[in-house]
């Protein structure tokens, strides 16, 4: 089983060009299945049938996995068996008739303009780390890129003259995103003053670095944004993705075209972007309820 998993991950890397984070996610999901099958004394992959996959999904639910995570795990397992079928390791796909659990779409958490300003103003810019953090927050809100795309930015991915960055999204897909004047100013300040002090005599191809001269990680920036959320007194639960949602919502509120937002966010399907139209509708309903004399 481990050899098959390794072959599958190698295929995803070489053929599909998936990112490290996506590969790790696939690996974790398939490993859950492997552990489950081992507990059922299944030693060969061609022994796995439709009933085993159903039992596996029931097992995930009993383990407390929510519908969204279960659905994602099933997608990984489906891709795994599709690969095994293509490579002729198995003769039939046991996931073929399995339906994906329906996910109730919740509206993503967003910040008001005032809350965004509070968050972006919270870093102490008297220190190299504060200047870096301010720059990262500004870039995140100005572009709406994912935190994984933010920390992967290289020095050559910023074009100050034309005012854009190059982000590498899911499946290593490249896209150009405008950066905006305020973020550009803060990014230039970070590169001129803060980054050299963080690196000292070291060099790095990565845009955002730590005091140890290493690349900023997703986990590291997650902790940073949580700390600034507390510092700024915001009561909402904030993550790096909150700024991404706020970016899209604020653009839409000001009349931006949905397809332009889709391109900037790197969504392959417009239906993913349409969640932000629901946010706008809900906001308008709240305004109507609050201010209309007959509401």
Level-2 CATH architecture of the largest domain: Orthogonal Bundle
**Count of DSSP-assigned helices:** 13
At CATH level 3, the topology of the largest domain is hpI Integrase, Chain A
Average pLDDT metric: 88
Structural class: mainly alpha
Taken as a percent bin, the fraction of beta residues is under 5%
Number of strands: 3
User: Which overall shape is indicated by the principal axes computed on the Cα atoms?
Assistant: globular
Number of domains: 2
User: How would you characterize the largest beta sheet?
Assistant: 3 strands, antiparallel
Low-confidence stretches: none
Tell me the Rg in angstroms: 22 Å
Residue share in helices?
Answer: 55-70%
| Distance from first to last alpha carbon | 61 Å
SSE succession: HHHHHHHEEEHHHHHH
- Strand order within the widest beta sheet: 1-2-3
CATH class of the largest domain: Mainly Alpha
């Amino acid at each position: 089983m481990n050899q098959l998993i390794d072959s599958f991950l190698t295929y995803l890397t070489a053929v599909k060009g998936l990112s490290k984070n996506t590969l790790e996610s696939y690996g974790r999901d398939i490993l859950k299945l492997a552990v489950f099958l081992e507990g059922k004394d299944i030693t060969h992959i061609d022994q796995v049938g439709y009933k085993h996959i159903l039992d596996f999904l029931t097992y995930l639910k009993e383990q407390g996995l929510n519908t969204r995570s279960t659905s994602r795990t099933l997608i990984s397992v489906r891709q795994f068996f599709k690969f095994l079928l293509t490579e002729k390791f198995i003769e039939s796909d046991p996931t073929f008739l399995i339906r994906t659990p329906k996910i109730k779409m919740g509206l993503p958490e967003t910040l008001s303009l005032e809350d965004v300003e509070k968050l972006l103003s919270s870093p102490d810019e008297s220190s190299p780390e504060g200047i870096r953090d301010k720059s990262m927050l500004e870039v995140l809100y100005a572009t709406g890129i994912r935190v994984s795309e933010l920390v992967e930015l290289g020095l050559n991915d910023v074009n100050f003259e034309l005012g854009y960055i190059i982000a590498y999204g899911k499946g290593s897909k490249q896209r150009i995103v405008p950066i905006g004047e305020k973020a550009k100013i803060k990014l230039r300040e970070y590169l001129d003053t803060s980054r050299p002090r963080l690196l000292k005599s070291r060099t790095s191809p990565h845009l955002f670095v730590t005091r140890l001269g290493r690349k900023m990680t997703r986990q590291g920036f997650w902790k940073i944004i949580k700390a600034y959320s507390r510092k700024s007194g915001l009561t909402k639960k904030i993550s790096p993705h909150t700024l991404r949602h706020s970016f899209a919502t604020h653009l839409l509120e000001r009349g931006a075209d949905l397809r332009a937002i889709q391109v900037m966010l790197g969504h392959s399907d417009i239906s993913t972007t349409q969640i932000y139209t629901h946010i706008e509708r809900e906001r308008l309903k709240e305004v109507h309820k609050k201010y209309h004399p007959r509401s």
